[in-house]
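Standup notes
- DV: blocked on the single-chain target, sequence here:
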Amino acid sequence: MFIFNSSIGKKFIQSISGAFLIIFLLLHGTINFFSVIDSFTGKFGAPDGLFQKGCDFMALPIVTIMVPILALGFFVHILYGCWLTWQNIKARGGVKRYEVASKAAADSWSARNMFVLGMVILGLLVFHLTHFWAKMQLQEFMGGEAENPYLLLTTTFGNWWVLAIYLLWFVAIFFHLCHGFWSMFQTVGWNGQTWFKRVKVIGIIVAALIFLIFAAVAVNAFIQANFLI
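- DV (later): unblocked, structure below
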């Protein structure tokens, strides 16, 4: 099929899977940010806190069913990202730089290092899953009881070196999204001079919003663990 055999088709799949992951990050980040709101309303750790309610929502059967679909989205995005990078390397005759379609894109550091950023994100994703998913969603999937989400936040981010690693991860996600967002729209044809500039700005805003949400959650949990609890 054209969508699987052509370069444009592969980039389209990469774009769609990337869009799905951006939506997930916004949803996941919003629910996590409820913990920051709880710290200002005095309900951090309370069973009726917004973050606890958000976690209860994530534990619903319909959301649990979505986990394998999310995993498939990650797998497809990673697989096609590696394949496109390999195709670019072969087309250029060696490891030079990430292939881009315009000078504005070529001047972007994130555009030239998408594969490296992706590998950093993937590696730290495994690190993240051992801290949260394995102790919450996986426990419930196996018929057990999930750990207290507030306690998981404070015990995880209470260590400064863990906080530093996570902040590094969020920075990598930021740069990956800065290029990935507008590249996604470019793939579907929104690459005119007017829309190109607008989409790039929107992409930076979305990437910055995702970074700030997750960074705020991590830093707030560190403060809660070391100074307020």
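- Follow-up: The longest helix spans residues 193-228.
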